[in-house]
Amino acid sequence: MPHFNYTARDRSGQPVSAGLEASSRKEALRLLAARGLTPVNVSEAGAAAGSRPPDASKKPAGTETLSKTRFRLTKSSAVTRKQRLPFLQALSDLTGSGLSAGEAVRLLSQRIQEPALRALCQGLWERLSEGWPLSRAMEEFSAVFDDSTVNLIQAGEATGSLNDVLQRLIQHFTEQRELRQKLVLAMAYPVFICCVAIGVIIFFIFGLLPNIEPLLKATGGKLPLATQLLIGISHFFINYGLFLVVPLILAVVSFWRWRQTDAGRALTDEWVLRVPFAGSFVTTTTVMNFSQTLAVLIENGITTAEALRMTERVISNRTHRRAFAEATGRVLEGESLSLALARTNCFPHLVLDRLTIGENTGNVVPSLKEIARSHQKDLSRRLQVFTGVVSTGVLLFAFGFVGFLGYAIFSAVFSVSASFRF
């Protein structure tokens, strides 16, 4: 029976090197997982030292069919970023109970019923069964796991603190999901009110007025000014509405496509920052995202340089991203992060002061977490104010227009009634 030499880590994270006999490499990996060991390197005795799991760029014979199977698995199952948090939560539950990461993924690939999540677990186990570390297997599913998640998992594997890393990632992604849910819920009511108001206006202009206009004109009397204005608006939109809607749609589509370009995105992101309410909202979002992400990365052992580069990619506004990239370059030259960010003139002074205090006291991570928490609260407050203003404004406009419609129609009716009496 073949003899395999292995290097692995036990459940406490301590390195273990020994040998075992197994019928195949896959069987050796299964035996290691059953012992609660996380494989780092497994090689058959007599093979070249330092051999690694099969690399994607060097496929051994007989793996072409396997690669095609993987391609079908990842594409047809439509795994997306939505599967990231449920997978990490399930994995953390099992590893926290004492299972190794490989054994936990194997169990999930068999027990989970949700199709996309099951396909993800099966794809990961397929790679883990060949000796790949979890971080490298996750890297193959870039649609689900971003670079920062993969690097954090890799750091957790190297230090033997995978479960702690999973807990921090779960907390981080849960907070992001809750914020997105708050945003969606906050915008749902204003959007509903807008849709109802637009529907009422369209009904009156295109449905009600064309039907009652002949009745009003049949009396031969002079219609009130409000009624004439309302009928004029209805005629204008009925006759020329198409000439307004089509150019408007073309303009919106053209603007949207232009915004997708690098130059368009950079320019529009800069414009947004100059809008009074939107600019402060975007800045608050940027500060919350980069402070939250940077805290998680540094806390889990990622080097400051790499953490700054990965944090840069989570900033959506191009102006802020460019400023953060400039600050990162200064930090790598030896400047403090707070001073480097201050030179960009893009971030609030209070944030920079709190970050300076954290750097001076050696508590950068707690300071970043506190900044993220305070800005998350501020963002929730801004959302409440915004939705309240939008909802009130739309309701006032809708009620005002409906009131104007009622006045125009009833004044015409009273005018008709008066002409019949006299």
Tell me what you see in this structure:
- The protein has helices at 25-34, 64-76, 84-96, 101-111, 115-128, 134-139, 147-159, 162-218, 225-260, 262-274, 276-299, 304-312, 318-332, 337-342, 349-361, 364-421, and strands spanning 3-9, 15-21, 38-44.
- Strands 2-1-3 form a three-stranded antiparallel β-sheet, with helices on one face.
- It has 16 helices and three strands.
- It is 74% helix and 5% strand.
- Residues 47-76 have low confidence and may be disordered.
- A hairpin with a 5-residue loop joins strand 1 and strand 2.
- It folds into three domains: 3-44; 77-145, Type II secretion system (T2SS), domain F (Receptor-associated Protein, Up-down Bundle); 172-422, Receptor-associated Protein.
- The longest helix has 58 residues, at 364-421.
- With 422 residues, the chain is mainly alpha-helical.
- The termini are far apart.
SSE arrangement:
Elements: E1 3-9, E2 15-21, H1 25-34, E3 38-44, H2 64-76, H3 84-96, H4 101-111, H5 115-128, H6 134-139, H7 147-159, H8 162-218, H9 225-260, H10 262-274, H11 276-299, H12 304-312, H13 318-332, H14 337-342, H15 349-361, H16 364-421
Antiparallel strand pairs: 1-2, 1-3
Helix pairs in contact: 3-4, 3-8, 4-5, 7-8, 8-9, 8-16, 9-16, 11-12, 11-16, 12-13, 15-16
